[in-house]
Amino acid sequence: MDQADRNASNGQTVDLTNCDREPIHLLGRVQSYGCLVSTSTDLLVNHMSLNCLEILGLDPAEVVGERLIGLLPEKTVHDLRSKVQVSASGGGVARLFGYDVLKDGRLFDVSIHVSGGSSYVFEFEPKPATEPRDDLALVQPLMARIKRRATIEEAAKEAAMSMQVLSGFDRIMVYRFSPDGSGEVIAERCAPDMASYFGLRYPASDIPKQARALYTRNLLRLISDVDDETSELVPQTNTKGVPLDLSLAVTRAVSPIHLEYLRNIGVKASMSVSILKGDSLWGLIACHHSEPHYVDYERRTAIELFAQFLSYELERKIDLEVRDGERRSRELHDRLMVRLSSGGKLYENFDVVAEELSQIIPSDGIAIYSEGRYLSQGAAPTADEFRALSRFLNTSPGSEIFHTSSIQSAFPKADVLADRIAGVLAVPISRAPRDYIVFFRREIAHSIRWAGNPEKSVELGPNGVRLTPRKSFEAYTEEVRNTSTPWLPAEVRAAEVLRVSLIEIVLKLTDEADLERRTAAEKQELLIAELNHRVRNILNLIQGLVSQGKSAATDFASYTRVLDGRIQSLARAHDQLTRQEWGPTSLRELVSVEANAFLGGEKDRLIQTGDRPMLAAEAFSTMALVIHELVTNSAKYGALTDSSGTVNLNYDIRPDGDLQITWRERGGPPVKAPTRRGFGSTIIDRTVPFELGGAVRTRYKLAGFEADITIPADYISHPLDDAPDESETTGPSRNDMAKLSGVGLVVEDNLIIAMDATDFMMLHGATRVHQASSVEEALTVLSNETIDFALLDVNLGRQTSLPVAERMRELGIPFVLATGYGDVKSILGEYPEAPVVKKPYTGESILQFLLEATEAEADDDTA
């Protein structure tokens, strides 16, 4: 990785024996893409790079010692002074983008910062001629994609892809440091012709402490061309012989040793971006390019902002992992308290405890040594072997966790255990005699792929005692023996929580357990009494239905049919109540279930409108009978007797909380008032007033039966959210029942939209999805790949996707057109016929139209 400051020293030699204590020395040179000017606090020019003559037309030999106000236009000096004020007060870097420094039409990106407390450093980079763009606008959508990733590794993979989008480099590596100072490439994005370094580990010496300290101050460093000439500063030192501190200079040159390092791996341009966790260097994003590659200062500023947000997001994910471990530890504590609350011996519950602990601290074996008894599961020592091990464990403090990933290194006599265990985590659960719960892990004879032999990372070169970069970058494999998977900090913290929990259990008073048992018994008695009360009420209700229903029946068959319908209605209501755990339940769903059960395919003729009331459990059975009678009466005598009639049911929750229900039947046969009141009519008219204290008014109009029902507010509540009732769902959608199949193509000139569409297609069955941002790219994909379906943006910047659509029609490939225009007909008049979605569209709409387009194409082929 980056070795920029392994020997950056103004011609000084580096003492290898004192490498860690060597201060950071910076080259007194700058890269050719920008010129550097340093001034005193009164803007007197102290240093200037030689290439300023070429870039700004200023000759260092003539202007050093002059005042800046005499060299640049007055307006420029005024603006630079304002930025100097910002830099001095904020302690950071002030920036100007696309600024006309010389007032001659040429634009520059300008960086200004304070150096050494008494100098201002101005850096000027000519602005390349580009179309207007908003680099910062890319940062937020790219970060949104990273936030959606669940793990650090997934986030790093997404960050590599995002950095390639922002920077345009061929190879992007996300590099994470280990506690020992080495680092590993945990994510990579590279061009097909670039060698992959994914999974390689780099020795700590590749990035010495001096360079790491610099990385925490200067977050981004660009080398646009490793073979480019650099420019010296004039003069090299100030009047006191001290070189200018270029730590924060964006154009400063790097060590020739690092340039040799990059040439050895075939890299012509590179960029490094720091990833911080707090004030510490967590890792780097390293960017390589096979050809010279310049990224202008404005784009680099967007990359810096992206890196800062990425650092915050990675830190958040790390903290989430820590908090998740702490949460699991607390849950473990609670479970152990419950498991061991009876006051039994710890070893008596060993099987239960071992099962609980294995969920929080992964291991290959576990053992408990308590009150002289030893029990074990999995890979673990024998009782005699553990007694010898316990004497070693007793030498550690009794209030601390002992853990090692190589017990053989810490306790040589443990060599006899090498065939079973290597890692040990011991949790003391008493003081004298010392008792333990111990976790064991097997040896993992694993291979670490080093990017070069870590034992030969430093060589003596022809120029004396100088660090020379490796010339071989083939992976060096180091086999590690007698070592287990390391115990993670979260696992050690969980073990500490376990130790505290077990001590708390030992000290717990037994009367607390007795109190819990008494409370549980009282709750059980209350539940039994409540169950007995509810069962008796149900039995009494059924008895009433049986006896009252006799008068309404003309024969045994009709009596059985009516009674069965009413009992089934109560059963369906009971199912809904139990599904909601006897809480408030949707009245709309009650009506829908009843209509579905009674009317079958004609349930849509009962239309529900208005509010979405939730009905209390106490009123649910009552309303179930009322709704059942209303539906059955309408089906026997009213609007639902034939296919022409409908029932409209409206709900209105009034300001006082009461619910007003209106039942209106229309389109059925002429209605006649009944000559006598049956049991069903009695239920409709009298149940709500009698049981709920509400009101019911019925009217037998010629055009259709009507009912107005009022339910008191005590039994009514609003839904918790605006989600539709289950009654309104129509079963699984096409998106649930069908998926895409094959290879897709997204033709879209907006990268974020293309990436989101690609993700959605992959999520719903696509085996692979190609992306193209122009007509040329899309036609190339169609020539080289077999495409099964596609999404085409109509407007591709200065092009339209019409040639692509025509080619797809020739090939018989189904596609969907996407457009942001309102007048679709005038825009798509020349296009082949295809489904059209308007922006902004949802992934579900894309899937729906793609499925329809695919089916239509299949039907055409069949025909």
Summarize this structure briefly.
The protein has 863 residues and is of the alpha+beta class.
Defining traits:
863 residues, alpha+beta, Beta-Lactamase, seven-stranded antiparallel β-sheet, six-stranded antiparallel β-sheet, 23 helices, 37 strands, 23% strand
- Which CATH class of the largest domain? Alpha Beta
Full CATH superfamily name of the largest domain: GAF domain
In DSSP terms (H or I, runs of 4 or more residues), the helix count works out at: 23
Rounded to the nearest angstrom, the radius of gyration is: 39 Å
Content of β-strand = 15-25%
Overall outline: extended
Query: What separation lies between the terminal Cα atoms?
Result: 61 Å
Largest sheet: 7 strands, antiparallel
Count of DSSP strands = 37
Q: State the domain count.
A: 5
Weakly predicted, low-confidence segments: 1-25, 461-467, 722-737
According to CATH, the fold-level topology of the largest domain is Beta-Lactamase
Mean pLDDT: 79
The percentage helix is: 25-40%
